[in-house]
Design a protein that fits this description.
Layout lengths: L1 H23 L21 E6 L22 H19 L4 E4 L9 H10 L4 E8 L4 E10 L2 E9 L7 E6 L5 H13 L9 H5 L2 H32 L4 E7 L2 H4 L5 E8 L3 H8 L1 H24 L3
Parallel strand pairs: 1-2, 1-3, 3-8, 6-7
Antiparallel strand pairs: 4-5, 6-8
Length: 304
């Protein structure tokens, strides 16, 4: 009888959760900009800014240098933009704490970046990157033999990429984010005491709630990315490849709405000049800040 009663309770609560989710997010696709995404009283308190890549740390070890341009490197451009983004957010949103995953030129491995975001109870995670295309192979004539052309395959830079791209985590890789959500909950968001992950792992209701939280973060990530993309295209006039779901480890492991911003193609001459200019960096930062402000207003609107 106990098992039957428990099953009925779980089934009933599951139905209620699904119903509430469908009611809150009627469109299963990308949320529109007027979608309300938060519970009553929710406030954006912490934004984590992540400058992608970096130089080899002084103590040695692994690092990810990022893509090279003609005269600049992704790791330096991302740090410059991230620092400006930190300054702009602290100035325009003084009530919000801004956490940087790296403060200097040295790389921080992606696992540590996610740990920093989760340990600081981040409400938004913004990762700054530069895009690049791999070299392409072409066949060129290098001579003639017996009146027939002789071809050689060579690699040449592909500089055709241009514009911005917004990435959110892909549902093809959900395990790491599930664990990140569990770990973040154990830290105690909103000073609430929760059960251990060992107990929750065997709790069907906890699994249902975890799945709902994961879906919520995904919807919020897509929505925030869409807002940022709109600012880039409609205000700055940037070319954009849109919002795309992709397996990105640092996004998979963050237990919060997370967006990776590919600010431009560093191996495209025009984009590289823009990314290294004061004007370009200031426009990129201003667009992200405007989008975050809009997102913040939306998610906090219910609690007003």
């Amino acid at each position: 009888m106990k098992n039957k009663a428990s099953k009925k309770l779980i089934l009933g609560l599951s139905t209620l959760i699904v119903y509430l989710t469908l009611f809150s997010f009627k469109n299963p696709g990308f949320p529109k900009t007027n979608t309300r995404l938060a519970d009553t009283g929710f406030k954006i308190r912490t934004i984590v800014v992540d400058a992608g890549h970096g130089d080899r740390p002084p103590q040695g070890g692994r690092f990810s240098p990022g893509a090279p341009g003609t005269y600049s490197f992704e790791r330096n451009v991302t740090l410059a933009i991230a620092r400006k983004l930190q300054d702009a957010l602290e100035k325009q949103l003084p009530q919000v704490k801004v956490v940087m995953t790296r403060q200097d030129h040295y790389d921080v491995l992606w696992g540590k970046r996610a740990d920093i975001a989760n340990a600081n109870h981040g409400d938004i995670f913004i990762s700054i990157h530069c895009n690049s295309l791999p070299d392409k192979t072409i066949r060129e004539v290098v001579g003639h033999k017996h009146h027939k052309p002789v071809y050689k395959t060579v690699r040449v830079p592909d500089r055709s990429g241009r514009g911005v791209l917004l990435l959110v985590y892909s549902t093809d890789r959900i395990g790491p984010q599930n664990e990140a959500i569990r770990e973040n909950e154990e830290i105690g968001d909103d000073n609430q005491v929760v059960t251990s992950s060992e107990n929750k792992a065997d709790d069907p209701m906890a699994a249902i709630m975890l799945n709902q939280m994961k879906n919520k973060y995904r919807k919020q990530s897509i929505h925030l990315a869409d807002l940022i993309n709109t600012e880039f295209t409609q205000v700055d006039g940037r070319r954009s490849e849109g919002v795309r779901e992709q397996v990105v480890l640092v996004l998979d492991h963050t237990a919060m709405p997370s967006v990776l911003v590919e600010t431009g193609y560093i191996n495209n001459h025009e984009d590289e000049d823009y990314l290294n200019s004061e004007k370009g960096q200031d426009e990129i930062v201003a667009s992200i800040v405007r989008a975050i402000q809009k997102y913040k207003d939306e998610v906090e609107e219910v609690g007003k």
